[in-house]
Write a structure and sequence with these properties.
two-stranded antiparallel ribbon; 3 helices; alpha+beta
C-alpha cells in the first residue's frame, strides 16, 4: 500500500514500518504500530472465540479448514 509522503512524514513512518487501521462510525484512521500490542487491537475477535485459549482457537480453525476442504 502506498501512503502519501505528507502522511508518512506526519506519522514518522519509514519503509517496513507496521501500521494499524481502525474504522469507527464510518471513518477510517491510520496509525503507526509501535509493536505487537498495538497490532493486537487492530483485528476484531469473533464472538465465537472470545475468551478461548489460543490453542483452542487454532484447533477450531484447523477443524474448520479440514471441513472446508471436503
Amino acid at each position: 500500500m502506498t501512503i502519501p509522503k505528507p502522511v508518512r512524514d506526519a506519522l514518522g513512518l519509514s519503509k517496513g514500518d507496521s501500521i494499524v487501521f481502525s474504522v469507527d462510525d464510518g471513518r477510517a484512521t491510520i496509525a503507526k504500530a509501535d509493536g505487537l500490542i498495538a497490532l493486537a487491537a487492530s483485528v476484531p475477535v469473533p464472538e465465537a472465540v472470545k475468551g478461548l485459549a489460543w490453542s483452542q482457537v487454532l484447533r477450531r480453525a484447523h477443524r474448520h479448514l479440514g471441513e472446508a476442504r471436503r
